[in-house]
Amino acid sequence: MELVDKLHMQGFKEASLFKRAVSMTIDDLLVSFIIFIAFFDSFVNAKTLEQQIILTNELIGYIFLAYTLYHWIFIALYGKTIGKMIMKIKTIDIETFDKPSWGRALIRSIVRNFDEMFFYLGMAYAIVDPLNRAIHDIVGKSVVVEDN
């Protein structure tokens, strides 16, 4: 039996690309704001575009860590991030139909962050996937569904 059929038999409906995009935007803005606050003095002192680029390069490890922790913890604990909560969608494991395990949530989060660094190319796959899954969903053995 195909995954689409299994999800529908369990009463799940895949989340729309629109809801996923809005959720992702909310999450990215939230984490970016937290990073900006954490390094406020550094950002304020970076007066030129060149200084801002250098600062961003210096902070890339912290930025990657912040995004990874945010997505990992929220997906593992709740099956959804703040953006997903607002959009009423959630991430579920394709085998248990429950929130992903800590391990799968971590893998999904890391792959998602690498995908963001490469212009969201892995997320473009969601356009052709019947369940609107991006590469990080497939690797993390998860799917994003409506949260009833």
From TrEMBL:
<keyword id="KW-1133">Transmembrane helix</keyword>
<feature type="domain" description="RDD">
    <location>
        <begin position="15"/>
        <end position="140"/>
    </location>
</feature>
<keyword id="KW-1003">Cell membrane</keyword>
<protein>
    <submittedName>
        <fullName>RDD family membrane protein YckC</fullName>
    </submittedName>
</protein>
<dbReference type="Pfam" id="PF06271">
    <property type="entry name" value="RDD"/>
</dbReference>
<dbReference type="GO" id="GO:0005886">
    <property type="term" value="C:plasma membrane"/>
</dbReference>
<feature type="transmembrane region" description="Helical">
    <location>
        <begin position="21"/>
        <end position="40"/>
    </location>
</feature>
<dbReference type="InterPro" id="IPR010432">
    <property type="entry name" value="RDD"/>
</dbReference>
<keyword id="KW-0472">Membrane</keyword>
<dbReference type="InterPro" id="IPR051791">
    <property type="entry name" value="Pra-immunoreactive"/>
</dbReference>
<feature type="transmembrane region" description="Helical">
    <location>
        <begin position="60"/>
        <end position="79"/>
    </location>
</feature>
<keyword id="KW-0812">Transmembrane</keyword>
